[in-house]
Design brief:
The protein has 143 residues and is α/β, with parallel strands linked by helices. The chain has a single domain, classed as Rossmann fold. 46% of the residues lie in helices and 20% in strands. α2 links the parallel β2 and β3. It is globular and about 55 Å long. It starts with a strand and ends with a strand. The model has no long low-confidence stretch (mean pLDDT 88). It comes from Paenibacillus illinoisensis. InterPro entries: Rossmann-like_a/b/a_fold, Universal_stress_UspA, UspA. Pfam families: Usp. This is Universal stress protein.
């Protein structure tokens, strides 16, 4: 049914559930699975008292962690017989996920839900909520 599936992962504890759902949907089917992780592109300029090289070091560590997460997720899917592509992007997670899905004609997005509710979701927003509201393809939100 779905030939192109994008799986958005992050440091959330739902990553294993997301990968399990991906295996159930993609196993034994001619499906291209793309694992995607988005890390920050910059740290707030409001932190003028922090040395710039320290901020760059933080961003480099975040990128390194992102690449490690992608590799771990790829290994789990490969163990299940799925050969995923990995993509690391930088920027606003919801925006980058939606842009990549549109540009590569994804047919399904699988994403986790952090479980924010009430005032926290209103104030902080939710990547999965934004993606589900603005996506041009179906979105599976895993809790």
């Amino acid at each position: 049914m779905f030939e192109n599936i994008m799986v958005a992962i992050d440091q959330d504890q739902t990553t294993n559930k997301i990968l399990d759902a991906t295996v159930e949907i993609a196993r034994n089917k001619p499906t291209q699975v793309t694992l995607i992780n988005v890390s920050q592109e910059y740290v707030s300029n409001g932190m003028t008292y922090v040395p710039e090289n320290f901020l760059k070091e933080i961003l480099n560590e975040m990128e390194k962690a992102s690449l490690e997460q992608l590799q771990q997720a790829k290994s789990k899917l490969e163990f299940a017989g799925i050969n995923p592509k990995t993509v690391h992007l930088k920027g606003n997670p919801a925006h980058e996920i939606l842009k990549y899905a549109r540009d590569t004609e994804q047919q399904l997005i699988i994403i986790g839900s952090r479980g924010l509710s009430g005032i926290k979701e209103i104030m902080l927003g939710s990547v999965s909520h934004k993606v589900s509201q603005l996506s041009i393809c179906p979105v599976l939100i895993v809790h």
